[in-house]
Amino acid sequence: MVRKITKQDVARKISSYLNRTITLEQMVDWAEEMICEAEYEEGDFELIKEVLSRLGLADVKEFGLSWDDCYNFLSRLGYQVRVFLFYKTDKKSPGRDSNPRSPPYQGGAFPLCYQGTNFFTFLFLCLFYFCA
């Protein structure tokens, strides 16, 4: 069965790469496979094909893949990119649940002015919001 690829599929894969849930090689392999075997969503054929082609070359030294490249791809796919910072801690904070993705503090995105922290202890977590 041939899989139909959408802009959302491509954006999710880039997001997974930026959030380090997949490696660059895994994203490149996926992009190459989608170029060869998938059908593209009607109306977005050229855009999806162009982004997949570029992702498929990301492991080639002359092309590479920068943060700006990912940002531009996501923007062209209809996404607004926002970066939220979460404090990296080695010990469990009071009231924190067992979910490793839950923040070690109360109240959502971590403020940059949090007391007693060093900026270099922050870990970047990229979240993407679809533009309506």
Main beta-sheet annotation: 2 strands, parallel
* Termini gap: 31 Å
Average pLDDT, rounded to a whole number, is: 77
Our estimate of the beta-strand percent is 15-25%
Strand order of the largest sheet: 1-2
Overall 3D geometry? globular
> What is the oligomer described by this structure?
single chain
Helix-strand category: alpha+beta
Provide a descriptive summary of the structure in words.
The protein is α+β, with helices and mostly antiparallel strands. The protein contains four helices and four strands; from the N terminus they run βααβααββ. The protein folds into two domains: 4-77, no CATH class; 81-130, no CATH class. It has helices at 7-18, 24-37, 45-56, 67-76, and strands at residues 4-5, 39-40, 79-87, 122-130. The longest helix has 14 residues, at 24-37. The chain is globular, with a radius of gyration of 18 Å.
Topology of helices and strands:
Elements: E1 4-5, H1 7-18, H2 24-37, E2 39-40, H3 45-56, H4 67-76, E3 79-87, E4 122-130
Parallel strand pairs: 1-2
Antiparallel strand pairs: 3-4
Helix pairs in contact: 2-3
Question: How would you briefly describe this protein structure?
Answer:
This protein is α+β, with helices and mostly antiparallel strands. Helix content is 36%, strand content 17%. The chain is globular and about 45 Å long.
Feature tags:
single chain, 132 residues, alpha+beta, 4 helices, 36% helix, globular
